[in-house]
Sequence to fold (87 residues):
Amino acid sequence: MTVESLLVALVVGIVAGWLAGEIWRGYGFGLVGNLIVGIIGALLGGWLFSLLGIAAIGIAGLLVTAFIGSLLLLFIVNIARSTREYA
Fold:
């Protein structure tokens, strides 16, 4: 992976995390937290899409992949928070 592709992946992950944080209300992760969610979500989305055999083409495809991964990550965090509250 080149430095340029790593920077593009980080920027796309950051944007996706911000978008997912705006869509999924009720989380107080803040700006830095949403950036981290976006980066982890980009990795999660890329892994999930590769399992499903879906290829992301271009920056728009990467953004969609990272956004879906970020939403999935927020969903998992939501489940973990709700089960911890009832335990």
Summary: The chain has one domain: 3-86. The two ends are 43 Å apart (CA to CA). The chain is about 85% helix and 0% strand.
